[in-house]
Design a protein that fits this description.
This protein is of the alpha/beta class.
Length: about 475
């Protein structure tokens, strides 16, 4: 009898926290986003066409900041000593709820809104991760929350953070170090995806560093004995890395990109350079692999009789999951329901799948159930992880491309500049806005999310994996 009573009490408490009906305030928030819909799509498409890469997102940043300012948010530009980073805030007091907005593109994947590979501009960048939609949707949520504050529905502070350079240098690490989340209670974020779900999975921690070798140039035929080849050291180093792959943890990853291996065939190269990245789902397991890979550079330099230099670029944490926040987001996704697609959009999606060699199953607009959090989820990395170790983070994924679409590819770029991407962006904006509204209206939810954050973080002391100022010069 006692057990039955407790179960009933829990169900009642759950019902009081998560209403299964769309409230008047949530309907008003949705109406606000709908009111701004055409402008948000225009902003997203402008950023899509600009396709500006890490730390060069001058116009993309300006467009978002200008729209925030136009709608009454207080904008501070060039935060954390990064010209394209900014904050846009409104309100006062607690709770302080922040929301992330990315807007950088990827090099070399320019694409028209066409279901076959067709560059918009040959050799140019493209939004193969959907960041043109990311920042725009988040700003739409922040503006809708501001309008509810103006209507007297909620109190507190909303804080939009324009976060550049996620694809390469991970600017959020410098923004965290600058204290931009120090006053925040809960952070909300999303990422374009091929499905709709509250994201309760982590990602991979990583560290980036550059290795340079310095030798002695000489004529490659007349007197090669007078030369000390930097490219020999580079090749020995990459060979060592490739042999080492067999002996690292199955969850770990090592990548490298040769940036300079010599200029001409008849000169013994005196300089070589490569970018190296090490990853693992746990930072504690990634760091020993990093130390070993660094040590191998010295071995390669000794064998080739050259000098070497290692320069840290940046590093990021895995994401600290918050399931309490995920449950709030999940409830709002279920309230919103699925995304529906037109016949033309379905045909477009299947054509993308055909062009990329995937099963032609179309688009997935259904709301996926909340998944169990995996210990080693695999996948990619994001500097949202560093935010999540400093403030509780609630994350979301929303469909902007067909099922199975290769990410960081022309196929995502194609969808991000047309109606498939637009629908996902507006859906994400509503889901995040509704979740933020829950946090503003229910202090118990904020407390629950923050308590889980403290439990999961435990005794871990966050230490940013950067050395020096942001590499704004690209080096």
């Amino acid at each position: 009898m006692k057990k039955t009573f407790l179960m009933a009490l829990c169900l009642c408490m759950s019902a009081s926290v998560f209403s299964q009906k769309m409230s008047k305030d949530k309907n008003q928030l949705i109406s606000s986003i709908e009111k701004h819909k055409e402008e948000l799509i225009k902003i997203s498409d402008s950023i899509w066409a600009l396709a500006e890469t890490a730390f060069d997102e001058t116009e993309s940043s300006r467009i978002l900041a200008d729209y925030a300012e136009k709608n009454g948010l207080t904008v501070t530009r060039g935060v954390a000593d990064i010209p394209t980073a900014f904050t846009a805030t409104y309100g006062s007091g607690s709770p302080v709820i922040s929301i992330l907005g990315e807007f950088d593109a990827l090099p070399g994947i320019s694409q028209k809104t066409s279901p076959v590979k067709e560059p918009f501009k040959e050799g140019a960048a493209g939004h193969g991760c959907g960041h043109n939609m990311f920042g725009t949707a988040s700003l739409g949520s922040a503006i809708a929350i501001k309008e509810l504050m103006d209507a007297g529905k909620i109190k507190g502070t909303v804080k939009f953070l324009g976060t550049p350079a996620e694809e390469k240098y991970f600017a959020k690490v410098w923004m965290v170090k600058a204290g931009l989340w120090d006053d925040v209670d809960v952070n909300v974020s999303w990422h374009p995806s091929a499905g709709i779900e509250a994201d309760v999975q982590s990602g991979l921690s990583l560290i980036d560093f550059v290795v340079e070798f310095y030798g002695q140039a000489a004529h490659a035929s007349m007197d090669p004995w007078n030369g000390r080849s930097a490219s020999d050291a580079l090749e020995l180093y990459t060979t060592g890395i490739n042999y080492y792959r067999e002996h690292i943890l199955p969850t770990s990853r090592i990548h490298y990109h040769i940036q300079d291996g010599g200029q001409v065939v008849n000169v013994v190269p005196d300089y070589a350079k490569l970018w190296v990245r090490v990853r693992d789902p746990k930072r504690s397991k990634m760091l020993p692999t990093y130390e070993r890979v660094k040590a191998m550079a010295e071995g390669a330099a000794i064998m080739a009789n050259v000098d070497y230099k290692i320069s840290l670029v940046s590093g990021i944490y895995e994401t600290l999951v918050n399931r309490s926040g995920g449950e709030i987001m999940q409830n709002n996704l279920e309230l919103l329901g699925p995304i529906t697609y037109t016949e033309e959009e379905t045909i477009f999606g299947k054509a993308i799948q055909k062009a990329t060699g995937k099963p032609e199953v179309g688009l997935d607009g259904t709301v996926h159930p909340l998944k169990e959090t995996e210990e080693n989820p695999g996948g990619g990395s994001t500097d949202v992880g560093d935010v999540s170790w400093n403030v509780p983070n609630i994350n979301l994924g929303v469909s902007v491309a067909p099922t199975g679409t290769p990410w960081h590819s022309w196929a995502v770029v194609a969808c991000g500049g047309m109606s498939i991407g637009h629908k996902g962006m507006i859906h994400a904006s509503k889901a995040m806005g509704m979740t933020m509204l829950d946090l503003f209206q229910n202090p118990k939810l904020v407390t629950k999310v923050k308590e889980e954050f403290k439990t999961r973080k435990g005794d871990e002391v966050y230490e940013p994996m950067i050395d020096g100022p942001p590499p704004l010069d690209g080096e």
